[in-house]
Design a protein that fits this description.
Order of helices and strands: HHHHHHEHEHEEHHHEHHEEHHHEEEHH
Oligomer: single chain
Number of strands: 10
CATH superfamily of the largest domain: Nonribosomal peptide synthetase, condensation domain
Strand content: 5-15%
Number of helices: 18
Largest sheet: 6 strands, mixed
Strand order of the largest sheet: 5-10-9-8-6-7
Helix content: 40-55%
Distance between the termini: 98 Å
């Protein structure tokens, strides 16, 4: 950028040298010169006339984000000259709307605290994600796509010791699988993924890395034209975030490959803002009101007393699965919600709890369930498209005394869940983020459950519960999966899965709850089961019998 261009901008009314607007203009000029290989760049020259295109706009946005400027490809095309772009960015910063790059230093500190707490409490592994692409991308296209996505999600640019959300880019590697046989290429692919995972460094960054792979014959692993493998630290992103990350990368790669501007849904509130509010919540009155409940939950039920609570980070994890028939699946998905408001998770938890209770010889079973913390801090803020480690677990104590049928047990689970404060996400927030050491110590001291029920676990060797049981509908059938790493006996994982599925089949045959609706169906009433039963009995009393 030339001095003449700068002087022209000043003469035309932009603030003088040293002013924030002038510094922004000069910084943008330097970035444009580097990305477009043009020096000088005039403040009124059009981006497209300078040779700019979609990929260049993404590269520019990524570099600007690293410099702390909330630039996006859309802004570049909406304001295609340096003068217009600087003025637009200055206006956004002045009115506080330029929030896409994350929060201030305090917010970044809170975010690193959240990541460190997640890391300390078991989120120490690295997840591998696979994106199949329709055509082999150039390395610069992959880099541009990653820059665009990372520019939208501040957590991906953080580290446990980093100075802020502008600290890191995602390294990209390219591997051409040239082995002469499918087995050889598979071995190459596996080695490349291991090397990719090794690049992730929670303490110093990066938290995200990528490798795109193709074959000499033009096909990538799995028969696609190319595959993009991502390695992401689990302290930075939960399962829902992984799906969002893959969706945005796929859309960005496709748009860049066609030479189109990158247009993605507007980003929601940054993770740094959520972390700031979560820290405040953990020390506030709402959290204090939940503390009594969490301190009163018994230790997790232990089916394998000699085994540790958590699996190691390394080692092969084994997955067992079984399916219900289409008719049984339809009964669970359709009939149960109509009869007594039950959700599929309630049915799964009830089946697991009943199986565990039989083997543990106890009427009260304590399992771990998944909770999504996105709604913890404020119902008015939208984090639906925000990447971060929002999923955490909480303990659920299910009392099975007097439950004779599958329906009874579902009602017991609903009652237990109705007693949980909020979504259950407050447990992890208190346990990890409370400034009161006694609170953290009290919650950390309780023994965690050996069995977790919830979202399907993803590939990888991250630490987790001894047994993770999940269910999802695939086609018209309910598939139940059990994942374990350590050898277990008495009961074996196979037996645990088989008995859980048998219980689900019973629930499908007789979905109605013999004891009627549970208090969970009336969460605001404060009624116990006996009180609710009395009221329902009164409602079903024939009014004709009261006539004289």
């Amino acid at each position: 950028m030339t001095a003449n261009a700068t002087d022209e901008a000043t003469a035309d009314g932009l603030p003088g040298r040293g002013d924030p607007a002038e510094r922004l203009l000069r910084t943008l000029g330097e970035l444009w010169s580097q990305a477009l290989s043009r020096d000088p760049v005039g403040v009124d020259e059009h981006f497209l006339d300078l040779g700019g295109d979609s990929i260049t706009s993404v590269v520019l946005s990524g570099r600007a984000q690293q410099a702390g400027i909330p630039l996006t490809p859309r802004l570049i095309f909406d304001h295609p000259t340096l003068r217009e772009l600087a003025a637009a960015l200055h206006a956004r910063t002045a009115d506080g709307s330029g929030t896409e790059s994350g929060g201030d230093a305090s917010s970044s500190s809170d975010a690193r605290h959240v990541l460190a707490a997640a890391h300390q409490h078991g989120a120490t592994g690295v997840r591998s994600l696979l994106l199949r692409l329709a055509r082999p991308p150039a390395t610069d296209l992959v880099e541009a796509a990653l820059d665009a996505v990372m520019a939208r999600h501040d957590v991906l640019r953080l580290s446990l010791t980093g100075s802020g959300p502008q600290g890191h880019r995602a390294p990209v590697a390219h591997h051409r699988l040239s082995g002469p046989t499918p087995a050889a290429r598979t071995a190459e692919h596996r080695g490349a993924v291991q090397a990719l995972r090794a690049r992730i460094d929670a303490r110093h960054g990066p938290l995200l890395a990528a490798a795109h792979m193709d074959r000499d014959d033009g096909e990538g692993a799995g028969g696609a034209a190319a595959t993009l493998v991502l390695a992401v630290h689990e302290a930075a992103a939960d399962a829902r975030s992984h799906r969002l990350l893959l969706d945005e990368l796929a859309s960005t790669c496709e748009q860049l490959a066609h030479g189109e501007p990158v247009l993605l849904p507007e980003p929601t509130v940054p993770f740094t803002r959520w972390a700031e509010l979560a820290q405040r919540w953990a020390d506030g009155p709402e959290a204090a009101g939940e503390l009594g409940h969490w301190l009163g939950v018994p230790d997790g039920t232990r089916l394998w007393p000699s085994a540790t609570t958590k699996t190691p980070e390394t080692g092969v994890r084994h997955t067992l699965s079984a399916e219900l028939t289409a008719a049984q699946t339809a009964a669970l998905l359709r009939d149960l919600p109509v009869v007594d408001g039950s959700e599929l998770l309630d049915v799964l938890v009830a089946a697991v709890a009943h199986t565990v209770a039989r083997h543990a010889g106890t009427p009260t079973v304590v399992l771990d369930l998944d909770a999504d913390g996105r709604d913890l801090v404020s119902p008015d803020l939208d984090f639906s498209r925000t990447i971060g480690p929002f999923t955490a677990t909480f303990p659920l104590a299910v009392e099975l005394v007097g439950t004779c049928t599958a329906g009874d047990r579902v009602a017991a689970v609903r009652t237990a869940r109705a007693e949980v404060p909020g979504t259950g996400a407050g447990y992890a927030a208190l346990r990890r983020l409370s400034s009161d050491e006694e609170v953290r110590r009290g919650l950390t001291a309780r023994a965690g459950a050996q069995i977790r029920v919830g979202l399907p676990p993803e590939d990888g060797c991250a630490a987790g519960p001894l047994v993770h049981i999940s269910a999802e509908v695939v086609g018209d059938r309910l598939r139940v999966e059990l994942v374990h790493a350590l050898p277990l006996s008495g009961p074996s994982p196979e037996q645990l899965l088989r008995e859980t599925v048998t219980e689900l089949e019973r629930a499908a045959q007789a979905p109605a709850c013999s004891s009627g609706p549970s208090p969970g169906a009336f969460p605001l009433s404060g009624l116990g089961q006996d009180q609710l039963a009395a009221l329902l009995s009164d409602l079903t009393h024939d009014p004709e019998e009261s006539r004289p």
